[in-house]
């Protein structure tokens, strides 16, 4: 791992602080208003926010501009997500150079969901690189000042590179070994997909502890009962304990939508505290796209300062 | 082998409609083995073509159905078609794209009508009763390292450093978690063999120059390989 620290995220992680990150999702729009409002809600509560790159292969606004704008306009550090699905290595280098030029400090290197699950399923999938070789590209740019083909870069970028991981993966072992592979290449932090069950979080953190890489456990409150039911039904591998499902349903019966959101604060505040108390995770990645205002409440409920 | 699938009949009839004489040419190679484009299928297509003309009340064209040993082999194909092919205005080929183009190359003045879509290089999965793609002809085989399971072909993202995270219980996100995740298959097999070092190995990005069309292999390229 490189020792230099370029970002607030890496600064906090290197100090051993329990960190919070948030998530923002630019959608199919030319308007930055919602992303900036979301960033304002997160500012001061999370050290940085991920800006998603065409999540689930939906063609949305390019993540770089909102990443830049939340830093410039709101003062919230960005974790610029990049997938290998839509760009070959030429386009990736090009965007990484542009990202560094406008002050992006963190990049999350992802493979990306397949084009066929997105809103333009006829598209040609790229996958020139994969998440591992994207990490390799970023490392070469930062550490050696060259691209994959050893072409020299003037004023090389200074990024920290993170990776995704799925604690729900079944089998889990190849998932862990895959992280090992990327740590070997030089990945510096892990942000996981959402976990609803503390046992899974524990199992994952224990399984990755030998790698000595900071792990941020992904936690995603439910915006609505419908969203919860959709995830339980259609996202294989996601496990939402019955207790959480029942508590949210009961809240809906009693007090409707508002009560569901309030119950979310209780449930996920407790889950965040449990992650802090019972695992050696280095932080939590809170994903509440479209209701970012709930993030400060969940953190407050967790009691973590 | 090369897996082909017959085009919808109306598409074939449409392409063939203006010709008064047609040679329907099957191939005894892959297309025949999978019972899509052999001599028998050529005979059936001849019958269907004639019936279609009859139903429309049009004159029956002069049609001959036959097959060659391997349509992709210039010499074999030329020896079975010369000079017979001169009697026909067009040839309907029941071979793969290579066979079709071999004909087009041998007989540049003839119209060659493809009766099939060429799907992929694959094998017959007898259990599942379907053909599955096995080789992308990427030009850089790594089957030794991946225990005989090709991630370039059988992983939907062609990852060299998989699995991607889109697998659940060993099934792939592409196509709704029905297909096996190639990287989980590779992992299981390498684990059985005590060779997980090959799994965690970092595979550098591919050189797509060896995979991208149009590719050629001749004397000079062979020398490259021998080095």
Account of the 3D structure:
The complex is a heterodimer of chains A (about 300) and B (about 230). Chain A is an alpha/beta fold. Chain A has one domain (about 10-225, about 270-295): Alpha-Beta Barrel (TIM Barrel), CATH 3.20.20. Helices cover about 45% and strands about 15% of the residues of chain A. In chain A, α2 (about 35-40) packs across α3 and α9 (about 240-280) packs across α10. Helices cover about 35% and strands about 20% of the residues of chain B. In chain B, about 35% of the residues are buried. Chains A and B meet through α5 and α6 of A and β8, α7 and α8 of B.
Contiguous helical run count of chain A: 10
- As an assembly, this protein is heterodimer
Summed over residues and divided by their number, the pLDDT of chain B gives a mean of: 95
pLDDT below 50 for ≥5 consecutive residues: which ranges of chain A? none
| CATH architectural group of the largest domain in chain B | 3-Layer(aba) Sandwich
Distance between the termini of chain B: 30 Å
Main structural class of chain B: alpha/beta
**Helix and strand succession of chain B?**
EHEHHEHEHEEEHEEHHH
Largest interface: A-B, 38 and 34 residues
Radius of gyration of chain A: 19 Å
The CATH C-level class name of chain A: Alpha Beta
The CATH topology of chain A corresponds to: TIM Barrel
How many strands of chain A?
8
Shape of chain B: elongated
Low-confidence stretches of chain B: none
Overall tally of domains of chain A: 1
Strand order of the largest sheet of chain B: 3-2-4-5
């Amino acid at each position: 791992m490189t020792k230099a620290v370029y970002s607030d995220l890496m600064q906090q992680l290197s100090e051993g602080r329990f960190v919070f990150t948030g998530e923002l999702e630019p959608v199919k729009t030319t308007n930055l208003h919602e992303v900036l409002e979301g960033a304002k809600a997160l500012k001061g509560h999370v050290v940085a926010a991920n800006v998603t790159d065409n999540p689930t292969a939906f063609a949305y606004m390019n993540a770089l501009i909102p990443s830049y704008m939340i830093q410039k306009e709101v003062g919230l550090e960005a974790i610029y997500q990049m997938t290998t699905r839509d760009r070959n290595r030429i386009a990736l280098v090009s965007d990484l150079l542009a990202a560094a030029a406008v002050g992006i400090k963190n990049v999350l290197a992802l493979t990306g969901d397949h084009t066929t699950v997105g809103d333009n399923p006829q598209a040609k999938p790229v996958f020139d690189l994969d998440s591992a070789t994207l990490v390799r590209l970023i490392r070469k740019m930062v550490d050696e000042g060259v691209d994959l083909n050893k072409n020299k870069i003037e004023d090389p970028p200074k990024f920290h590179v993170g990776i995704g991981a799925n604690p729900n993966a079944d089998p889990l072992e190849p998932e862990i070994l895959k992280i090992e592979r990327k740590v070997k290449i030089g990945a510096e932090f892990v942000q996981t997909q959402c976990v609803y069950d503390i046992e899974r979080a524990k199992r994952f953190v224990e399984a990755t502890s030998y790698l000595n890489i900071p792990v941020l456990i992904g936690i995603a409150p439910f915006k609505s009962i419908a969203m919860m039911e959709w995830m339980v039904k259609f996202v294989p591998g996601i496990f939402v304990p019955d207790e959480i499902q029942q508590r949210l349903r009961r809240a809906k019966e009693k007090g409707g939508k508002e009560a569901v959101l309030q119950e979310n604060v209780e449930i996920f505040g407790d889950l965040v505290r449990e992650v802090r108390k019972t695992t050696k995770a280095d932080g939590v990645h809170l994903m509440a796209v479209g209701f970012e205002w709930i993030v400060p409440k969940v953190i407050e409920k967790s009691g973590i300062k | 082998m090369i897996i082909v699938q017959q085009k919808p009949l109306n598409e074939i009839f449409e392409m063939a409609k203006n010709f008064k004489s047609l040679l329907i040419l099957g191939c005894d190679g892959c297309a025949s083995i999978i019972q899509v484009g052999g001599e028998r299928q050529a005979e059936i297509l001849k019958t269907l073509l004639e019936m279609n003309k009859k139903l429309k009340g049009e004159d029956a064209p002069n049609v001959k159905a036959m097959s060659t040993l391997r349509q992709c082999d210039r010499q074999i194909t030329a020896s079975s078609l010369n000079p017979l092919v001169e009697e026909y205005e067009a040839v309907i080929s029941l071979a793969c794209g290579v066979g079709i183009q071999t004909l087009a190359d041998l007989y540049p003045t003839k119209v060659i009508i493809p009766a099939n879509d060429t799907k992929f290089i694959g094998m017959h999965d007898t259990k599942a009763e379907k053909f599955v793609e096995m080789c992308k002809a990427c030009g850089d085989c790594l089957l030794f390292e991946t225990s005989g399971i090709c991630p370039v072909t059988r992983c939907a993202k062609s990852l060299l450093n998989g699995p991607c995270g889109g697998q659940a219980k060993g099934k792939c996100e592409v196509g709704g978690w029905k297909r096996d995740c190639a990287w989980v298959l590779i992992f299981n097999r390498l684990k059985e063999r005590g060779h997980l070092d090959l799994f965690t190995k970092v595979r550098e990005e591919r050189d797509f120059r060896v995979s991208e069309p149009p590719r050629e292999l001749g004397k000079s390229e062979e020398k490259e390989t021998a080095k």
